[in-house]
Design a protein that fits this description.
By secondary structure, the protein is α/β, with parallel strands linked by helices. It has one domain: 3-Layer(aba) Sandwich (Rossmann fold), CATH 3.40.50. 30% of the residues lie in helices and 24% in strands. The protein is globular and about 45 Å long. The structure holds NADP nicotinamide-adenine-dinucleotide phosphate. The site of NADP nicotinamide-adenine-dinucleotide phosphate has 28 residues, from helix 1, strand 2 and helix 4.
Length: 212
């Protein structure tokens, strides 16, 4: 596939670029800096673009088969910028006539029990609340876009650089935890999950939790 990868210079984005390339996809990697390091081999082009700008998104999306997002707010921006990004990306896709969007979201809106989301639990770190709330707001905007083939994939509660095992589990709308109750995934395996979903389309119009 010819894939436009938004946030390609980020931590999850670079690993997603490598996973896409390893599977033979052609990747245009977007960030505001336009600089992406550590991508192996041919078939990857880094390009400058602003994901809050619908004109930019429409121009960049044109001619691609799908958009994969690993966008995240910078430390110096309000997390609510995520809602501006998702609105501009949706508008850009519509204008470019591209239907498929696989979005890296947040775990905060996933269910952890009857009528309880992760963000509502006592242990949820206070400093993560603003970005988790913004990610839920972005999901709510995306969930209205019935005309697009979107999938919203959330990492586990904890995601860090690690190993690519190729193994992970998913749950529709629910936090994935292991036998000890821990919710974890490596960034490499989350990238595997994103690209699996891009290729297999098993979670279209779904908020999908991932983890071990
Ligand atoms: N457990 C969880 O739920 C969990 C944990 C971690 C991360 N996440 C989510 O995963 C996503 C990615 O995380 P990450 O750690 O990989 O983020 P990151 O390293 O901060 O990368 C963010 C990427 O977005 C790009 N970007 C930011 N603003 C942009 C704009 N206006 N236009 C174009 N590109 C822009 C950045 O490049 P430039 O700055 O050069 O533009 C960078 O490539 C985030 O949405 C985050 O909330 C969820």
């Amino acid at each position: 596939m010819n894939v436009l990868l938004l946030g390609a210079s980020g931590r999850i984005g670079q690993r997603t670029a490598n996973e896409l390339r390893a599977r033979g996809h052609t990747v245009t990697g977007v960030s505001r800096s336009g600089t992406v390091e550590e991508i192996d081999g041919d078939g990857f082009v880094a390009i400058t673009g602003d994901a809050t700008d619908a004109d930019d998104m429409a121009k960049l999306a044109a001619g691609h088969d799908a958009i994969v997002s690993a966008l995240g707010p910078s430390d110096d921006e309000s997390p609510e910028i995520l809602t501006e990004m998702i609105e501009a990306v949706i508008e850009g896709l519509r204008r470019a006539d591209v239907e498929r969007l696989v979005w890296t979201g947040g775990a905060g809106g996933l269910s952890v029990g009857p009528e309880t989301r992760l963000i509502e639990t006592d242990d949820f770190p206070e400093e993560w609340v603003p970005v988790a709330r913004a990610a839920i707001d972005a999901y709510e905007i995306l969930s209205e876009a019935d005309d697009l083939e979107w999938s919203y994939l959330a990492p586990a509660a904890l995601i860090e650089p690690g190993e690519r095992t190729g193994e992970y589990r998913t749950a529709d709308g629910e936090l994935v935890t292991d036998d000890e109750g821990d919710s974890y995934i490596s960034m490499e395996d989350f990238a595997v999950a994103l690209v699996d979903e891009l290729e297999e389309k098993t979670a279209v119009h779904t908020y999908l939790g991932t983890g071990y």
